[in-house]
Design brief:
The structure is a homotrimer of 131-residue chains. With 131 residues, chain A is of the alpha+beta class. In chain A, 27% of the residues lie in helices and 37% in strands. Chain A has helices spanning 18-28, 54-67, 81-90; strands at 2-7, 13-16, 33-38, 44-50, 93-99, 102-103, 109-115, 121-130.
C-alpha cells in the first residue's frame, strides 16, 4: 500500500490523479491484477469520469451542490454536512483492472479525487494486487 | 478479463446483465473468489438492484432524471452532462463474491448496465479472480 | 465468506458495523489484503462515513429523504421505491485495505449498514482476501 498526497486549492474541486495511479501500477511490476484507490477522508471521495473536458467535472460539482447545498437544515455542528453527504454519493474507493501491465480505463475515463471541504492537504491510498 | 457487448435501445435504460456474469463465472472454473464488472464509459454505469419487478429500475431512472434533468444549466458543450453525473452516482464497477462456484447475489438482486446516453453499442469488462 | 446479522429498529437507519468487520479481519489471520462488505438486499446499502458524531449519518439520511421522498410518483407497487433508489446511490458493497493485520480506515471513518426499508432483520456478507 502506497500513500500519495493531494493538495486541494478550492472548497470543492476534482483533482485528476490518473497519472499517479498509472505510475504506481508501473512501479509495482504487476502485469495482471487490480488497483484500488482509497480515500481515508469523510468529506472527500473518488470517482471515475471524463477527463478530456474540464466542464464535465465542473458540471458534476455544480449539480451536486445544487441538490445538496453547503447551507441547509443540517444538525452536524461543523457546518460541512453537505461534504459528508457528497462523499457517500461518490464513494471512497474505486478499482480498476490491470491487464498486460496497463490500467484498463476507457478512452475518456480519468480518476478524480473529489474534494468537498477544502482547501486541504489530503491522502489517497493505492493498493496493487495481482502478479 | 473478458469483454461483453451491450446494445442499448433507449436514451436511458437499465439492461439486466446478470446472466452474462453468471456464465463468465461458470466458464472461469473459479470456485471461491470474486467477480468484477467494470464499465469503461463515462455516460453509463453499473448497479445492483431488484430484477423481479421492472418498475423498480424504471423508478430509479425516472427519479434520477427528475433530480438531474437532461436539459439544465450545464457548461459541457456535448449536451450530455446529466449522463456523466448519473454515471458517477451509480458508479462504473461492482463486485460480487463467488462461493462454491456460484455468484453470491441476494434473492432479489440483479446486475444492471445503466445507459444514460443511448442508444449505443457499449462494452462491459468482466474479471474473475480466485481459485 | 462469513455472514453477520443486523437487526434494524427504524424505517431508515444507519448501523455502525465497523466493530464486526474489525473482528472478522482479526479472526481471519490475514495480515495483508482486503475485506469486502457486501449487502445482499435491494432496499439497503453500505457506506463509509464519519462515525464520531451521529448527526452526520442523521444528516445523510434526512437529505437523501428530502431528495427522494418515501411517497412520490413511483410505479413499483410495493411502496418502497425510494428505498431501492437510495440503495443504488449508497451502493451494496465497500472494500477496505488490510495492512499489518489492521483495517486501514481513516481517523473518522466507520462502516455503516444503511437501512432504507426497516425495521427488518438483515444480512451482511464479509469476505477477507490476502495472506
Amino acid at each position: 500500500m502506497i500513500e500519495i498526497n493531494v493538495k486541494t486549492t478550492k472548497a470543492q474541486q476534482f483533482v485528476n490523479i490518473t497519472g499517479d495511479v498509472v505510475k504506481m501500477v508501473a512501479d509495482s511490476g504487476v502485469k495482471d491484477g487490480e488497483v484500488m484507490v482509497y480515500v481515508p477522508h469523510t468529506t472527500a471521495g473518488v470517482t471515475i469520469n471524463e477527463s478530456a473536458d474540464p466542464d464535465v467535472v465542473r458540471d458534476i460539482i455544480a449539480t451536486l451542490d445544487k441538490l445538496i447545498p453547503v447551507r441547509g437544515d443540517y444538525h452536524h455542528a461543523e457546518g460541512n454536512s453537505h461534504a459528508h453527504i457528497k462523499s457517500s454519493l461518490m464513494g471512497c474507493s474505486q478499482r480498476i483492472i490491470i491487464s498486460d501491465g496497463r490500467l484498463v480505463l476507457g478512452t475518456w475515463q480519468g480518476i478524480f479525487f473529489c474534494e468537498f471541504d477544502g482547501p486541504r492537504s489530503r491522502r489517497v491510498y493505492i493498493s496493487v494486487t495481482g502478479k
